[in-house]
Amino acid sequence: MFDSEVQRILDFVGRGIGVRIIGAPGSGRTTVVRNVVANLEKTGMAIHFISGLRTHRSIPYAAIKSLGLELRPGRSGVMDMADALASQLSKPGKHVLIVDDIHLLDNESLAVLESVRRRSDCPLIVTAPDSGPISRGQLAVMNSGREALLQLDPLHFEQVHTLVTQVLGSAADADTTARILTKSGGNPRLVVRITETAALSELLIMRGGQWQMTGDTLWNDHLRGTLEALLADLAPEEVTALHTMAILGTARVDVLQKVVQPDVLEGLERRGFLSVMDDHHNGPIAAISPPVIADYFRGQKTLRDRHLLRNKIAGALEGVPQTTQGNSTTADCLSRVLASLRLEKGNDDAVTARHFHDHSAARERTRYERWQANKSATNAAALLRVYWGAPVNVMRATRVCQETSTLNGDPNDVLFLVITRAFPAIYSGQGVSTAVDILKGFAEHNPEQASTAEAAVLFINASHGRVAPMPEPSAEASQAALPGLEGLVQSLLQLYRFRPDAVLSLTEKAEDDDTFPHLRPFLHGLALFAAGRIEDSLVFALDWRAEARRNLDQFGVVASSYVAALGLLYRGYFEEAEYLMSSVFAMGRPGFVVDILYDAMLRLAGLRHATTAISPSLSIASQARSEVPDVGPLPGIGKGAHELVAAETTQPSVFDRLAVKLIKRQMRSGYILEATMTALLCTCLCPGAPVLDLLRKILRDSGVTAHDQMMAVATAVVEGDHKLLGLLLKHYELDADNYQIGMLLRGALKRHVLEGNTAAAEAMAEASSMFAARFPSTNEQLSFNTFRTTPLTEREIEVAALAGHRSNVEIAEHLGISARTVENHISNALRKTGATSRNGLFILVGNSMAAR
To answer: Per the confidence metrics, is the pTM higher than 0.90?
Structure first.
């Protein structure tokens, strides 16, 4: 879980720089330190390890004495112990001093360490909480030399998925992972404990190859000790404050301040037990963090019996004025929205997800009660709109659809009710035909809305089958846009057909539809992306997402996040894309319609794993529904592209054949946008003539010219015209395909190495290096790991990395092995990778390691 953090610490220590590791209790500070110790011991470095203990804080010299220093009788003062430790650190060799939980050290031990730090330049690794006051003694120890800071942030969805898989031995489904993340707040210790105890309590069972929840809770009595340890240092008034918040649930800050002292709230927030966020409707709100703490209090009898506390809260809530905040968002620039997204990464996904859940649950409960009192179409539509974005209560949704009276109902509400009734028919296995029959039956009995119902039928058929070729419009028809849902559905079909300019001309003029308010911005953002206006698409989608988050609009968050994820992945912003999608996954599987976008994002997030040696069972894409076709209307909705990239294929010719077959299927279905993005991805990962020819034809037919520079570079790469390639790269003007071209050059390099074309590989390596020097990027390059089916051992990789510029004898001397052993390793590596020469093997291994 912490490989990158451990490597960063090792790099700092290797340069003689100390490291302060900070994080919340349970964030993995001790785990990181122990991994660092294990790695440093392999290098022969002398480790001096001190561990702070809560029970020893009042025992003088307890921490220093744990080192087992040799002291003369009667010499046990601060300076005596400092002399002994400094003497140990001055011995020949490299030394490192490690203090785990420095905030738990006694004052006398801190005094010894301060004295030692003044005499020695030995690097110090320290772990400490990321909140709370730091004493003067602790500062004196930590600030005596050069120091780097490493913050351990809460885990996001993908990391929780990996950790849960490690604990259980196989993956959990998306809803279970989301619930564990939500309850744990991304705290690694709580993730492990919740998972272990839920399995022990049989709240998790294996079903269909994945772990799933047996009920709607993960709380169990086995978690009590873990939570008691987490809360052990709280003062009585802070415990009472958490009791109060457990009763209130998510509440406005001004309400909380009426029943809890402001300084207590500030203390809880500083220590990470209180999370505050802005709510567009109610102003700043606060909730317990991690949320499992609220379950701990609610599970206690003492909470249920605290009548005085409940009366105090009830009295404070009387007469609280309801206020709302204004909403203002303006499109600015890519740097602004990316900066906002990166700033948001420091927030707690779990608390945000729980706030969405609480808001949706409250709306659903209120609207369901209203519908029970009056089963009108208006009340039914109001309730079902909640289920279009938030998780669905299937029993309630079914009951509402069956028992609602449509007599004298508003036509728009009745139509919404019928369309909502059609969607579950698709996802419950009844098939598209059942959904179509429902809508056609409605059209027959309501001729005044037949055109709108037919548009819905067209949408369902096109989204779950194929898009019929569109006839050429007449001059009169092209000037008059269809109104409402009919026009938006026609725009969606144009998007499927990869006609982004036609979509933009309609969406820029059209207004949001009251019945389906998210369809127009979704089409507009995707059309900007399809037209190659990636930055415009990102700014639009991220601004829309920010507004949806403020409005607690889960439908809008999922839809905008999908559009933004496509743009972020296209530009190589993998960390930002993974966080954005992780924040969606943390909310759990959404309701009707957008759940296919949720699955699509799971597959998009899995693309990065699919190009590495990570076990497929750990890929986040395994949580997406598998019973879907290979082709779909939009990128990621069909599973074919992900399965193509994830397949264990090492021969470029085989990859070409499979890619062409998939792209042609997508084109025959009328899903030209998906075919375009598949062809672009395949061309950049493993450029070949068959796929490039298809991509060229699609772009020519669609009239999209935004990728002309990249297509010229790709043609020169595939045709092996290195002179033309050099000129194109020299005169290349920065555009949205900058990342793709870098990926294309690396993909071509690997392909040439696999095919044994050493001269072409060397030329491509030179071109790739020149382009990278001209346009340096901090973004990781996506590329195939060619050691997928036959991975090299660590020793084979080590030998191969030296094979390009050293002889067997030199490699043997360097590694301390025989020349015969080196020869065997190289022979095995050549056989496993398919490389035809030592130089090709060297290029291949070096390129693969750089991509990791």
So the answer is: no
